């Protein structure tokens, strides 16, 4: 998870430099895809597992639907 978070941070730093220098096109697309890849490999699965596991069975359906609605 630390590797993924570090990758996201690095991608955003490079994004800042790219926008400051006026870079457009393929490099921005590549940075966007890298950021999405790091997120999908590190933080995204944790969010969904955590939401589905923190509530007791008797209220899980309602609680998960409210949590996901708030997340979106």
Describe the 3D structure.
This protein is mainly alpha-helical. The chain is built from 4 helices and no strands. The longest helix is centred in the first third of the chain and has 19 residues, at 2-20.
What's the short version?
The protein is mostly helical. The chain has helices at 2-20, 26-41, 43-53, 60-71. Helix 1 (2-20) packs antiparallel against helix 2.
* Uncertain residue ranges: none
Structural class: mainly alpha
Mean pLDDT across residues = 92
- How much of the sequence lies in strands comes to under 5%
Shape annotation = elongated
**Termini separation (Å)?**
22 Å
Q: What does the largest sheet look like?
A: none
The topology string of helices and strands comes to HHHH
Report the helical percentage.
Answer: over 70%
Count of discrete alpha- or pi-helical segments spanning 4 or more residues:
4
Q: Give the total of beta strands.
A: 0
User: Measured on Cα atoms, how large is the radius of gyration?
Assistant: 17 Å
Keywords summarizing the entry:
elongated, 72 residues, mainly alpha, 4 helices, 0% strand
